[in-house]
Each structure stands twice: as structure tokens, then as C-alpha cells.
Automatic annotation (TrEMBL), chains A, B, C, D, E, F:
<dbReference type="GO" id="GO:0006602">
    <property type="term" value="P:creatinine catabolic process"/>
</dbReference>
<comment type="similarity">
    <text>Belongs to the creatininase superfamily.</text>
</comment>
<keyword id="KW-0862">Zinc</keyword>
<dbReference type="InterPro" id="IPR031034">
    <property type="entry name" value="Creatininase"/>
</dbReference>
<dbReference type="InterPro" id="IPR003785">
    <property type="entry name" value="Creatininase/forma_Hydrolase"/>
</dbReference>
<dbReference type="Pfam" id="PF02633">
    <property type="entry name" value="Creatininase"/>
</dbReference>
<dbReference type="GO" id="GO:0046872">
    <property type="term" value="F:metal ion binding"/>
</dbReference>
<dbReference type="GO" id="GO:0009231">
    <property type="term" value="P:riboflavin biosynthetic process"/>
</dbReference>
<dbReference type="GO" id="GO:0047789">
    <property type="term" value="F:creatininase activity"/>
</dbReference>
<keyword id="KW-0479">Metal-binding</keyword>
<keyword id="KW-0378">Hydrolase</keyword>
<dbReference type="InterPro" id="IPR024087">
    <property type="entry name" value="Creatininase-like_sf"/>
</dbReference>
<dbReference type="GO" id="GO:0006601">
    <property type="term" value="P:creatine biosynthetic process"/>
</dbReference>
<dbReference type="GO" id="GO:0016811">
    <property type="term" value="F:hydrolase activity, acting on carbon-nitrogen (but not peptide) bonds, in linear amides"/>
</dbReference>
<protein>
    <submittedName>
        <fullName>Creatinine amidohydrolase</fullName>
        <ecNumber>3.5.2.10</ecNumber>
    </submittedName>
</protein>
Length: 255, 255, 255, 255, 255, 255
């Protein structure tokens, strides 16, 4: 079947792997969210899965099925909930499924879990789900969890190469150069560079409003231009992410 | 990108499809659950998605990402929760994500939704999720929902051909002839016919126990033998499911 | 007071029984749901209680008060929620009261519990309630639970006698021959045979719709005719249910 | 069938009553709670139902099935949770079932509901359930609800007759003169006057402790002696409750 | 910083106090609720905090920040929810924050907690929060909790002095003599005696209605006149509350 | 009483203000969380309230009572949950109280609400609470909400003055120069500059672990040194926050 993807593995293969090697299990946390006209709605789940699979292949890890739906899109990081196609969960739903999946992995005997967030808005609710799971499992449970947003593993050097005119910061990197380059590397057939919008970078005030003001967000849903994205940059970043994640995970789970 | 799979479609393509054609949207509801040594843990999500995609391709529908995790496995229909790899949600989690996704699809303007259950244990919790969503959306919301377990669309004639010695009933059809044949048709690379167990059919009393008795369930997790499964049967069943689902959906959403 | 019905027993009598004999406790799970013009709304709770009391009388068991309200009626098994009088709970409510009652019985020292479902729609939510209770109580708790739908204990032979023209299956047995006969046996004063409707059997497609289509369901709420019901059949079935339940419970709780 | 008890009435009879007369519907809220050695565990539900039925018979009302389980017993009003047999719900469970039942009654067209509390501890959670139901139903819903603890309808004159040595107040009236007399009137077969304990009145400090101190509560569970209870007092109080409830309900629902 | 108020203490000071002296911690539970034209909306939190601080100063206790928002105001005890300014929580919210705060105090090593209710409507939901926290913490947790409504510590003698014409009972003491006198003692700058309304005492029937009838409640929100309130009475009552609370707490936590 | 603080205002004064001026209402969201040896546990609530009150005084606004307890402290922004004194809420509790308070303010007629977050970890749960409230209130509700973390209103120029050696970023600004300076300005009596720790700045990897590693966090709980903090910087920052918040709020609520 498949040595990495848990849903393409039999229970016996999975059981044996867990019992023998205590492998690192990855839980990618994505979303179904607009990513401009040139990227697919599933970009966050696809990239979180691709990053997880790349690392898992290197360290004999296992990737659980991604959480395909994430927390509600916010204007400043994902464009907001007014875009058709963006399909989001309430906080309590995301918290609970995270908790439930971790409870079950612990029952299987998993001791090393890496929760890979690919959708910025998920971070805090996933954190609560992890916390509730560990509280319920109790202090005797040997499960240890890392949670990370994968883009935080890009070095300044790499960002400098990807953004020769200066890295504008992660804040507007929605459907922009980083995600588009990574998609061109991992899923080129799902990128339509011919549809790249020219929306300039969004400018946001230092607060949020509810109901949100759609006029704050470029109509394309892209928060800053993806011009400059290419597959080579995606490969460079993907390789760095893999290397640095491998090192961090090995270090964290060494003892 | 992809004309059928919502997560591989841009939000603009999706928006236009919804606005122009009012297409049928499919929500496959799967599970991560043991399916014997010969089928992968993700079988239920894979088959619910395959069935949905087959129908959607015929009627210009759209398939939302599957719910990859389902309700707790029960001994009589899925072997039970004692198998490593089976990774299940609490009832309230499954209810809520179903409700949330439907609430969002309604916001997009979706009017025709088909919830395709591929994991028997999901049925009632998905039903509650649909009910809560519709109650919240209110009677003025034009969304109409069909919910179905796909195997209920197989005719007696087809079952007679698939089971030349007599159809033993759906009760024990977990990781058995139907699912194995369908997987051989849709995902042959994920089936290990060489690992097919010979466990005889399980015999269950007319009640359930909690905690469950693992000894009721064959050690392989297969409730009745998959001997007799082949890709041709899978193709036959797949074709019938598509035809009959197309007809039912067209009939239901015609008015 | 009363040696069987827990609510008609003093706490001291109950305490002594639990401490001395470790009796089997029964929790009937009913509903308040239309049962046609000839049966009362409380039929499911009345029958679940009657079956429980009959068995309890034989094995010195105790019957806790029935859950009088159940999960939402579905068109195919109970006619659906559009009937006045049908008074149903949300899933989470039914799950929680089941969990709470079981948690309390465990606190009392009950070790043997039989949850007797008399309303088909309750089954999965009661199951979740049992699971949540046992998870909370932890593996050291000695409580063991059986859950059953009482009609599953009728043998084919008896069904053949009750349905001389052939048993049409449990699917349409709502307010039909089995329930009407059992009510004629247990509560004849609550049956109005003079009001028996002649609605032919309902025909349902292999899917459900939401909102439901009331036209699928006979206007009387009876899914197949109760013609042929009589008290003698009720007595026969009641006796068989008692005998077979006694045997199953004794077997299950013997070790 | 039965003209008063909803669960012993067909849905058609119920529907016609609601449509024609807009009758008052009663929802008795009881408990399963120790009531000393001389009264049954179900006393609160039995009395709330008996009071409701008495009033309903006078004003052509309908009595819905009692909530048989109530909120956790407190030392000062019900003896506390340490008594075997006392079987209580978490707050959220009681709140939700109250909300659900009221939502359903409103759907049936009920416009006049009287929630009759027979278990002191239920009061606030039932209040929240009513509030949540009305909030969900919205201001256009014509349903109006009265909530009452039945003993508050006893006049000082009657209490003076029932307690010739002076009424000690409702605080300790658990399984004492009022409840015992009412049970002797309504359910004499369920009272064991021969087992009446002689525990003196309980004395409580002006605070509560958690975990509770069982030594605060007389071992019998009776907070003050039921000596002096008799059926005649029960009949007197029952008659007064009926008269005064009839008057209050007629007054409240007149406009 | 401050030796009594936890929020004005550093974590190190707090930690050392908990470790060295096992001090009594107080959790005042207030509300934001109308208190007539002469008292501020925060009266309940202010008085619960003042009472707690007075006692804590005597026994080297620590006062946690008050719960500033409480359960929904009821007509008979707080005037009801129709007053602007009254800002209340749903039951589940109040239950959960109570549970959460107690869970955290237990983690800090607190063994003696006094929950001081200053808003009548909070009592039962705070009780449930305490119960849920203790259930979660388990029987091995050394935390013991007292819960009290502070006015219950006033003696009959003091009430006779405060109400020379006879104490009408706590029922109507909302924004009346007791609260006004205590505010004149603790927070005179927040009392406007010149705005004291002359509304006579409210008269309520022995039931509640939903939706509530605002006409039951004096338009000022004061349930009985605060005429007769003065700072001296406030000082007298405050002193008695402190003395008697000190004694009760010392007694309860002595062993 | 008090013209700004809602809890020190009568309901009549509040009602009149809301009706006449449609004032901006502020909801400060704090925490009870370790802030090193030199700042009190309540720092976040105190500062969020001080900022709110400063702005409210300028624009005739009203400040509701702060949420005194916040979401669980995280190592990278607040030191983590292992510090005694840190007293945090579960996500669902914080979400619900935020939702409830906003629902109530909307009922009062409030149209302009500013939610002032003073505890970084609160942000996403407060966001969900706002979203749930607005969803429940419906699109016809005129309430508009701003949510902000107050420090985001500091300009680069001011930060350059406050940090002459270069602003290290907000990431480690927990109990450091900004908060300490602001406390010296607003609450000097609650700052112990003599206890200022010399812990160097914390260094965190680009991921989080659960259970957290306390060794990542300086033992004092201060993430970077507060050396350099003084009251003058606090006054400068406070003035800028007020000015810029006034401008933003006026602009946002002008139309």
C-alpha cells in the first residue's frame, strides 16, 4: 500500500510500525479557503500534507489524514469569510476533532506527534485541542506533541532569496509568493499562473471589525501579489522545510 | 485545476459554478478504521469519495473534501474500537463538523447537497448534523439535502451476481466482498489480495456489550470473508451505483 | 412498595438489593412519538418498560425509570418529526442523560446494566452515552452494560406465526402488528383497535431527504397495517422476549 | 385511552385537542432521589405528576411525561448525593432536555405551558431551559410559560392546620410531613409508615461544603420528622393546591 | 503590592503564600445588574469582594478577582432581564468559568476555597461549577470548598436592629436596606441617596412567567424601599459578617 | 457615581447614555497571569482597563467590567501554565462569556463596541465569541464591533524612543519594558522595580511542545528584561495609545 500515508496503510501495518519503531506521526491541519484565482481552495491542507509527507519520508514517519476544514478565515490572514468556497468550522468543532484524533492516537500507542498547521487561523484552536487531549489522557500518558506552523521554519537567508526585493513579512503571505511557489513545486497541475491577479498588497489598520469590511480585502482574495513565485523557489523552500523540520523533530524526540 | 473536486478548484471557479448551474454538491463521510489486512484504513473515505466523484462527473456536480474521520467503530459493523489504527470522533464532534460544513455551503448558495455516507456508524450523527444545520438556517433557506449510504443503491440482481452463493446481508459486509471489490476497481494499488484472511463470518448475539468483547470479532477485523472479491465485480457495482444515484438525485432535485 | 420498579422503592431497599445481590438493573429508553390513531404517544416507553419489568421479575432485577423522551423521529422508522405529539430530544441531550444516569448507577455500585431500547432512533445516541459514561468511569469500574433493541430477540419461528403471510421485516414495523399486539397484551386499555387505519405499507427510496417529505409517510403515521394484531400474538411474543432475554442476560453476566 | 396523560393519548387526539381548545399543557419535573425509608425514590416525579394531573383534570389540560431524573441532590434540601438510589443529572443535561421538550411543544402549537417543579434542586436549571427555549423560538412565538414549585401554593392557614405545633418552614420539608401526607393521599401503597424514622430535624450552618459532609444529614435521609403526616392532611393540601393552581393558571392565561 | 487581592500580588508572592501558609482563598461571585437609581450596576461584585476582603484581611486570606458577570436576573430577586445595564451570562458560561477557576486554584495547591456569592441568581450555577471541578479533580485532590451567600450570616438580632419595623425577609432585599447600607459603608461615593425611589414593596404571585411580565417589578428596579438604610447599619452588618464568617471558616478548615 | 466605569454607574444613568448618545462601549479582556516578580498577576486586566478608560474619557465612552480571567498562558507569550497564580479559562468558557456579554450589550441598544485585548492569548477566542454573538444577533442587528490588541497602536517612532537600542519585537514583550512602563504610569503602587529580574531574553524554537518544557522560560517568568522601563515611557505610550485609539474609533464609527 503506502508506507507514509496512514489512510493508505492497513491497520496491521500501522500497528506493527507503532509497536516496533515508535514512529513520529504527523497530523496536518488545513482548511478549505479561497486562495485567489490561481490556487485551489484546498491549498492549506495540500501544503500541510506535502510538508508532513516530505518529512515523514525522511524519518520513517506516518501522516494521518489532514483535517480538511479549518477555522474561520480572517480578513488579515485569509481574506475573510465572505468568499464563496471558504468553508470553515466553529472553534468548538475544530477543538474537538483535534482532541478526539489525539486521544485515539494515544490509544494506539503513539508517543511522538507533530501537528503541522497549514492554515494560520487554526493555531489557537488546535492548541486548545491538544491541551484538552493531554489533560484527559493524564500525566502518565507518554504522548508528546509538537505543534508548528511550517512557514516558521524558513530561514531569513531563504526568505531573502525568495524575496529579492525584501521579505514583506508573513502577514500578507496568503496565496502569495510562498504558497504559490510551494504549490508550483508540489502540485503544479493545480496552479493557474495565467490567472495571477495584480492586486497590490492589502493595507490593514491595527484592529479588526465585525462584521468585517470586505473592502479591506482585494477582490481576488490575494493579500499580496504572487508575482515572483516559481517552482524553483518552491523546491528551495520545500527542501529547507524538510531539512529543518527533520532536525527539530529529531532533536525534540531524541530523549 | 479540477472540475469535480472542490479542494482542487479555485474559489472563483467554484463561485461561478454555484451561481450559474446550481450544481449538486457531494459531502462524502468516511472514517479511519481498520479494514482487515488487505484494505487500507481510509477505505470508507476513499470509497465514499470515489462514488461521489463518479456521480458528480456525470451530472456536473462538485465533491467537497471528505470527512476523513468518523464515528466510533462498533464490533458488529466495523470491528470495534480496540483495533490500532481505528481513529474515531466523539458523537458531538462529528455532529458539529457536519453542521458547520452544511451551514457554510448554504452561505455559498448551494441548494442541492448529497451527503454520501461510507461508514455505517456515521449515519445517525450525520443526520443530527444535517438537522441542526437546517434548523439554524431556518425554513426560508432553499438548501435541500439527501443523505444516503451508497450500498443501499445496489439492486438485488447485482448482489445475486456478486454473491453467487447467496447474499449474506449487509450486516457483515465490512472489509468483505463489496468493499474489497470496489477498492479493486477504484484503488487497486491499495489492495493486498495476497493478505486476504480466511476468517469465517462473525456471529453476533442480538445485543451489544460495553466494554465490548474483542473475542466476538475475528482477529483480522474482517467480519466475513472477502474471497470472491474481484475488480470486475467492483466495476459492475460501481457502474450500478453511479447509474442509480444519478437517477435518484435527478429525480429528487428536479422540481 | 414495589420490588421491581426503582422509583417505587425506597433508597434503603434499593441500597440493600444492590449490596446483597448485585442485581441486574434495566434502563428502558423510550420516546414520545406518534404511533398512529390506535396507539398512544408513549408506546415506546411503555413497551420498553413492560419488557424490562417482565425480565426483571424473573431474575430479581430492578427497572429504573424510563427515558420518556427519545431522539427525533425519522420518516422511515417512526414517521418523522412533522407529527404533532412527537416530542423529541436533540442528540446531545439524549447522549448526556444516558451518560449521567449510568454514571450515577455506577456510583451506587451497580455492576450489571441492561439498556433496553424501545425506540429505534435512540440506538446510536444511547450507545454514545454508554461509551462516554464508561470512558469517564475508567477501566477499573466494574460496571458492564448490555444494550439491546428488544425486538431483535424475536425468533424467526415466532415472526412466522405472527405474520402468517410472511414477515415483511422490521423496517416498517412502526405502530404495526408487533407493537400493537404487544400493547394489546400489556396495555389493552390504551389500544383503540376500532381506529386501526388501512394505510398500505409505506414505500421509501434508498435515501433520506432533509427537510423530509411528509408525503412519503402515510397520513396516519402507521408505516404498515396493524391488521392481524391481537393480544394472543402479543402474549406469545412477550413470553419469548422474556425467555430469551433472561437467557442472554444470565449468560452475559454469569462470569 | 386517557384524556389527561399525553403519553396515553394518540397523536390524533392530542393534535385535535391542541388545535381546538389550546389547552394548558403541564410538564412535571421530578427526580429520582432518596426520600427516607418510608417514601419511594420517585416521590418528586410522582407528586409533580399527581398535582399536574389533578389540575389538568379540572381545566381540560394535558400532562406531558414527567422528567423522571432531576438535578443533583443537595444536603440541605434533598440529603445530598451520597445516598444510593439518588440518580441525578448534570446541570447541562437537565437544561437541555427542558429546552428540547419546550421547543417541541411549541412546534405542536402549544401556547400555554405550566412547568411544575417537584424537586427543589431543579428550579434554576429548569428556568434556564425555559429561557433558552424561548430565546430560540423568538419573540413571535405565542408560547407562554408558567413555572412553579407546587408547595408555594399552600396557604398559611393550611400550613397551620398541617403543622399544629407551628410550620418549621419549607427548608427541611424533605420526605417530611408535607410530602408524606401527599403520598398517603395520592399513592398510599407506596408509603411505609411503619418505617418512619425518628431523626430529629437537621441543623445546617449558613454555608455549604464541597465535598459535602454526610454527617450533616440524618442517616435516614429525612431532614425533619414525618410524624404527624396522614392522608387527610394530604387530601386537604391536594385540594388546596388544585384550587389555587386552577385559579392562578386561569388568571395568567386569561388574556 | 497588595497582601490580599490576588490580582495585585506577584506570582512569587502568591506562590510563597500558598506554599507556606495554605491560606484561605476567596472567590467573589457578583453580577452586573440593575440596583435601582441609587446603587451602581456592579453592586453585587463590589459587595461580595468587600465582604471577602474584610474576612481575608483578618485571616491572612487571598481574594481572587470577582466574577463580574453573573446569571440572568430574575424578576423576584433582581428585577429581571428587561432592565438596560443588566448584563448576564448563560448558565453554561457561569458554570464553566467557576469550574475553570477552581481547577486552576487546585493546580496552584490551594486547599481552602470560599466561594462568596453576592448575586442570588448565581447560587445553583456556581454550585454546579464547584461540583464539576471537584469531579474532574478527583477524590485525591485535597481542595475543600465552602460556598455561601454572605447575607445568610446576618443574625436575627442584627436584622431586628436594621429593620426596626420588622424584617420583611430576604426575598425583596434587592437594592433595598441591606445592600444600600453595606454600600454606604464600603463605597459611599457610589451611592446616591438623593435618588432613592419610593416604590412600595413588590408583590409577586407564587409562580414565575416566561416571558416575564415587567409590570410585576417596580419601574425603579428596587423591590422594596431602601428608606432606612444608613452607613452605620452597613458598618454593623459588615462587622457581623466578618466576625461570623471568620468563625465559620476557621471552624470548617480547622481539621 | 462614575461617568465612565459601567459597574459604578446606575442602570438609569447607563440607559440614558445609551439612548441619548449611542456611546462607544469598551470591553477590556484581561487575564490573571504571572508577570514576573515585579508586576502583579492582574496586569493584563489592569492595563486593558486603563487604556479603555483613557480613551472612554476622551470620547464619552463607557467601560464594561473587564474579563478578569483569560485563555491559558503559552510559554512564548506569557510564560506558560506551570506558574502558580496563572489562572486561566478553557477556550469554550472564554468564547461563551464573550458571546454572552456582547449579546446583552446588543439588547441594551449598544451599537458601538470596542473589545480591548490586554492578554495576547485571548485574541482568537474573543474573536470567536464576537462571531458567535453576531451570528446569533443576526444581520439586522446594528451592533458593530472593533477588536484590537492595544499595543498594536504604538508607532515605530515611539517604539524607537522606548527602545533606544532597538525594538526587539512584541514577541518577548511579556512583563518587559512596555508593560512595566505602562504599569509605572497607571499603577505605580503595584510595581516593584527593586525586584526586577535580570533574566536575559528567552530563546524559543519555531515550534511549541505539549506538555510544555518549563526550561524554555526564564524562571522569573519575564521573557525579556524590563530594564529601561520607566514611568515617563509609560506616559508617552499611554498618550499615544489614547490619541491613536480615539482617532481609529472615531473614524470607524463615523459613518
Amino acid at each position: 500500500m503506502n508506507p507514509v500515508m496512514m489512510d493508505r496503510m492497513s491497520w496491521i501495518a500501522y500497528r506493527d510500525r507503532i509497536a516496533e519503531d515508535s514512529p513520529v506521526v504527523f497530523l496536518p491541519c488545513g482548511a478549505l479557503e479561497q486562495h485567489g484565482p490561481h490556487l485551489p481552495l484546498g491549498t492549506d491542507a495540500l501544503l500541510a500534507t506535502a510538508v508532513s509527507a516530505g518529512v515523514a519520508a525522511r524519518i520513517d514517519g506516518i501522516v494521518a489524514p489532514a483535517l480538511s476544514y479549518g477555522y474561520k478565515s480572517q480578513p488579515k490572514c485569509g481574506g475573510g469569510q465572505h468568499f464563496p468556497g471558504t468553508t470553515s468550522l466553529d472553534a468548538s468543532s475544530l477543538i474537538q476533532i483535534t482532541r478526539d484524533v489525539i486521544r485515539e492516537l494515544a490509544r494506539h500507542g503513539v508517543r511522538k506527534l507533530v501537528v503541522v498547521v497549514g492554515h494560520y487561523e487554526n493555531q489557537w484552536f488546535v492548541t486548545e485541542g491538544i491541551d484538552l487531549a493531554l489533560r484527559e489522557l493524564g500525566p502518565a500518558c507518554p504522548l508528546r506533541v509538537m505543534r508548528l506552523e511550517y512557514w516558521d521554519f524558513l530561514t531569513e537567508q531563504t526568505l531573502a532569496r525568495v524575496f529579492p526585493d525584501g521579505f514583506p513579512g508573513f502577514a500578507l503571505e496568503h496565496a502569495a509568493v510562498i504558497e504559490t511557489s510551494l504549490m508550483l513545486h508540489h502540485h503544479p497541475e493545480l496552479v493557474r499562473m495565467d490567472l495571477l491577479p495584480d492586486d497590490g498588497p492589502a493595507h490593514f489598520p491595527p484592529y479588526d471589525t465585525y462584521p468585517p469590511r470586505p473592502q479591506w480585502v482585494p477582490p481576488s482574495g490575494v493579500l499580496s501579489s504572487a508575482r515572483g513565485a516559481d517552482a524553483a523557489k518552491g523546491a528551495t523552500m520545500s527542501q529547507e522545510l524538510t531539512e529543518r523540520l527533520v532536525a527539530a523533530i529529531r532533536g525534540e524526540f531524541a530523549d
